[in-house]
Amino acid sequence: MHVDSSMKRSRLSRNLLLSFSNFFWRAADTNTLRILVATDCHVGYLENDEIRRFDSFNAFEEICSIASQRQVDFVLLGGDLFHENKPSRSTLVRTIEILRKYCMNDKPIQFQVVSDQTINFPNKFGVVNYEDPNFNVGLPVFTIHGNHDDPAGVDNLSAIDILAACNLVNYFGKVALGGNGVGNIALHPILLRKGSTNVALYGLGNIRDERLNRMFQTPHAVQWIRPESTDDCPFSDWFNIFVLHQNRVKANPKNAINEHMLAKFLDFVVWGHEHECLVDPQEVLGMDFHITQPGSSVATSLIDGESKPKHVLLLEIKGNEYRPTKVPLKSVRPFKYKNVSLQDAADLDANDVQSVMDHLSQMVHDLIAEAAEEGHPDPMLPLVRLRVDYTGFTTINPQRFGQKFVGKVANPHDILLFTKAVKRRPTADGKIEDEEKLRPEELNQQNIEALLAESNLKMEILPVSELGLALHKFVSKDDKLAFIECVQENLDDTQNKLAEEALADKLQEDDVIVKVSEHMQQREKESIPRYKETLTSVSSGDPLSSVQHRTSQGGTSRKGNDDDEPFDDDDVPESSTPAKRKAPASRAVQKDTETPRGRGRGRGRGRGRASQGGLTQTTLNVVPVPRPPRRASRMETISDDDDENNEEEEDEEPAPKIKKTNSKTSQRGRKGAAGSKRGAASSSSSRGGRSTYVDDDVEDDDDEADAGPKKATATPSSQKRSSWGSLRG
What we know:
The chain has helices spanning 2-27, 55-69, 89-103, 117-120, 159-165, 209-217, 353-373, 398-402, 448-455, 464-476, 482-505, 509-539, 543-552, 610-613, 640-648, 670-675, 677-687, 703-706; strands at residues 33-38, 74-77, 112-113, 141-143, 170-171, 185-187, 190-194, 197-204, 222-224, 238-245, 268-272, 278-283, 290-293, 311-318, 321-328, 335-341, 383-389, 416-419. By secondary structure, the chain is an alpha/beta fold.
């Protein structure tokens, strides 16, 4: 009896405390700022998948619905609203429809922005969206950009800028990088006021982690702009919130941001980019703030961290106090994850593949049944992942295994993930780190260095760092010309260097490969720091610097062809001939510094517009040779200016030079090509036609035997012929 009475009193006191707390917060609605916090919505993820195409949209709509039902003052998003840097039209339309449905209404806004809005929202309008008299905004949305939807391009625009221009969201945290070296940034807060509650909202969109790490460790590189202290509102009255989108857990500390790097005056930190849901605020030792990590609202990778229940956070702030409430998301597709070790199975034969398949199939059926028992309000096919340790066993085909689960799970083709047990080194404190870190966008990816090391390959023309940058642009930024520009820049630079050395030292055939290798190694050393800086500028939204850097190195900065104009053969750059392993020493080359002539509009690279800037183009090209006739000696068609130089060097083995030919001359008949050397050259110079290529690598077998003795200017045989216009990368 005594125990029962004490339990009743304890329960009664707890209920009274909760009732008083609820009364306190509800009675102070005029002074309580209510914020719904979410991160990493990844709208548009797997939009082409027949089963999972609407998952991201359903989760984002549920977030907006919760905000409307809970009557929050605004929604705060921590980056990666879109999954793609260039979302499709379908994704944009659906996102705009959801925002318009829940954000456009006549609900009065009960807080105000008291800071300089032109600094907080650096767009054409420079004002918070609900103050625009042409729109009725009842639910403001404040968001920063992440690493998936960061600004890019010449105008440094993001997909979020489209929503901001439509007055649907308030885009902040887009800082300008200034200064020299690592650079510096200034973080200006959005000052919000509701009754007696004052909130300073700081935001920082995604910046490359390595660069931001260095900036935090560099004195005065990151400037925190504090609100002015007045008699009515001193510093201590401001509740400071910081929203960022960076790596939080990383094996390499230089590629992540440590919590202790942040300012100590902060009160609350919203951490985006990490997909594991750790929504309950965590205290940071030695700091005076708490961190919440809401995680993603949709599973973008099939790992253990993504299988945890998804939540958003309702944050209520009154004065300097706050109350967090986690709200579960019910529209998220069920996800079951399990680690399996085949060695732990008692009656499992390592040589019996069928028994292994039956064992794994039973586990998948158990997980499907477990997902069905959860009673999802909207039944849907679950996600199932088995991480199988097959040490001592043989693997089975995951595709064939998943065929029996078509229509039963949402991911039938990637249910199984086979791994082997590896020895993990203990850390300094004796603990063993987790083998699998939650980094969705970095899973199943390898860098260029790892791929080359696995295949025992050695780069001969392209530096690894610049190739890695091109891969980053192609995958993350959907830059379809990234590899073309990388190859073009390196080929141009290599050709120019070879041309200079060839004219100065008269290189022999065997020296070319050595010079190419030396030049590549030197370029690799120079490109490593430049590679890091360029990646930083791309990630931080400084595209102009990367474009200027490429053009300054001798490459061509191509922005694409006009959609209305076809891309013909004449638009091919002069260094785009097929690559060869070796180059003949008997072929003469020289620097061609003539201004290329276009056809008025200049659609190709370096053509037509050279006269505007007064620039000259230096190329290293193949000596164009027309198709020779059978049983006849071959003669090269050269210009008048080059003819005299050839006659002087006829008796010695010449250094590589450039020779130009007219496209019409290269198409003459076989008889004309053999007998009109000087006449064709004068015709070429008088007509002023464009130089083209003739890469005559396919020759008749009997040409060598029947051609007879050749002059010093004759073209070498097909076995030694190679192109000086481009070198192998």
